Inverse folding.
């Protein structure tokens, strides 16, 4: 299993598509193959395109800025969940957004949408967003996923309300909801679910009303007070689990 | 809600029991009340004993090394889960044990048992164990729990096997289990569940056999490879959720 883990960790990412049975890897991924892993011509490795395709590739040319290989086999959507489960997470301070993006990617979440609302105190600068995407890519590789979750640019709250229409069900983790747990409100027939989690200080009641008016169903995660990142990961795991996508 | 959050965060911990209607707080907690929060005589605050009792207390004496107060009211087991869900986690490197202890405490886990097995590479020194307990105490306060989870000294693997007997059901997160998810194996009538999660490199097959012989049921968390800390928190959330203790 340690061997298996090592193999798993050594998958590479490329956005390029094969042409004439050859695939090309550039940038940091190429440098890693050539300089860190010191792979040579003839090496066989796993390459994923982040949109569901996984290739077994035999290297035919290795330079630090460009690695090329012959595609031996192709597999689509391996190990991906059958449902689209997305998290809309109010922007959090510190490294908590990175934790949400990493763990959500591992679990099989399809998309993380950072958003602004009245009690958000952090900001998501462009370098921070780049870091979230890098963290998600690293989690894709360690988890052996083949689809890279979309990490959105921060949404204004109004845009979050409109996003609701893209999902079969929208669930709102709400600390003042005391009646229904996630299991009671989740529609098991939904093909796509958006889970909305607020900022550290909670939602403004007017925002909760707006989300509910846009179709969101609120649910409780129990009487204890969860940190936002714990709520996001717990809700994502429970949703994927109840839909049959986590075991 | 921001006000509520602020109040929630300001609860204090004492192991002392009231005598003649007075309760005493010492050590770091007393310093925090006197020096950081600058609470004075007459202030009212929440004090928890970590074994299920929550007191409303009116301060009668405030010194940096000793704070005393009159107990106004007493409440038992508020906001605590109805089931004992514990995590046995093979010792992890870096700060991952702290993450497991913090998030497990928030979610309502009753106990975290770090253990040794053949592929454990980290060590849990006494200062590191102290830190895990401090992290868990901080999470107790932020989550408004009243029971402080037990964070055990590291168990040898043989002792982990004997621990199984203290729980109605023992579940083993096992990456080579492909048939049954957590929802399929969890006994909904169990009053206590121990969830066992291996180290970064996975269990040795002989350890899996030994755990199964001791009564553990293995379950899958899906075809993706989860980091151990993500597996622990996902499994804890799913178990508490399915038992009705998370909303």
């Amino acid at each position: 299993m340690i061997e298996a883990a090592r193999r798993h960790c050594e998958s590479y990412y490329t956005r390029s598509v094969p042409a004439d049975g050859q695939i090309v890897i550039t940038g940091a991924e190429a440098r890693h193959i050539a300089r860190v892993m010191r792979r040579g011509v003839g090496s066989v490795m796993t390459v994923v395109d982040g949109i569901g395709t996984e290739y077994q590739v035999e290297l035919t040319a290795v330079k630090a800025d460009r690695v090329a290989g012959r595609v031996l086999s192709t597999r689509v959507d391996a190990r991906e969940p059958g449902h689209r489960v997305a998290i809309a997470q109010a922007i959090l301070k510190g490294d908590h957004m990175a934790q949400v993006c990493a763990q959500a990617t591992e679990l099989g979440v399809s998309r993380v949408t950072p958003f602004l609302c009245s009690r958000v105190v952090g900001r998501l600068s462009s370098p921070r967003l780049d870091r979230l995407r890098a963290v998600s890519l690293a989690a894709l590789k360690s988890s052996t996923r083949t689809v890279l979750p979309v990490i959105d640019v921060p949404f204004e709250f109004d845009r979050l309300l409109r996003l609701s229409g893209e999902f079969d069900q929208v669930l709102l983790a709400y600390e003042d909801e005391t009646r229904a747990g996630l299991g009671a409100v989740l529609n098991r027939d939904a093909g796509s679910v958006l889970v909305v989690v607020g900022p550290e200080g909670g939602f403004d009641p007017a925002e909760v009303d707006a989300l509910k008016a846009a179709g969101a169903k609120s649910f409780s995660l129990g009487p204890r007070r969860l940190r936002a990142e714990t709520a996001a990961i717990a809700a994502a795991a429970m949703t994927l689990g109840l839909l049959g996508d986590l075991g």
